[in-house]
Fold this sequence. Notes:
Elements: H1 6-17, H2 30-44, E1 46-48, E2 56-59, H3 60-65, H4 68-78, E3 82-88, E4 91-96, H5 98-101, E5 104-112, E6 118-138, E7 142-144, E8 147-160, H6 167-172, H7 174-181, E9 187-195, E10 198-201
Antiparallel strand pairs: 1-6, 2-4, 3-4, 5-6, 6-8, 7-8, 8-9, 9-10
Amino acid sequence: MKKLNWLKAWWLPVCLLAACSSTHNDEPNRENLTAALSSFLDAHGDMCIGKMKWPIDITKDEAQQRTANSLQLPVLEKVGLVHKQQISDSTMRYTLSDEGKKYYLDKQLPSMAANGTVTMHQGDVCYGKLHIDKVIGWDLPHNVNGTERTVITYTYTIEAAPWTRDPDVQRVFPVVAMVVRSGGALQLKQVVVLTKDGWQGEIGFS
């Protein structure tokens, strides 16, 4: 049997660890885009209801105006996620129950303002986690400010909280209902950019 010389013997394990390449595959393909999207969703695939700061107070005026909070919080109380307390003649206070705290994710999460600007906020009540189902396709990569980027179109699966199946939850949170019901069918989009470590998801909205 031939023996490797000392240089080859040193290089082989390094080659194996580095996938025998000093550069990654820059060309977008189903394999590397699926890997990039999967990693992104593992870190940022949390789906939340937009209730960041607690407790939340509801006044009689808000209840009469049927604001989103005045309609949604009683439903969250019904499914056991919040407790309510009358703190004045005109104000009801809602706080997260022990069950509700299980769904409060204390991390930086993105949200989109009415003008389309993406901002980050701390914490939210989250109802599920997205995972990739399959990559449908991607746009032709283009350069923006010196960075290659593309947009992946994909379908997803979701690990949804049991309370999302409640009919009243689905009525007052129609987006939650749509996302939960549409796993495997609804197509979403995600921006990915080419970095020195390969393709990676970018926080934001395409």
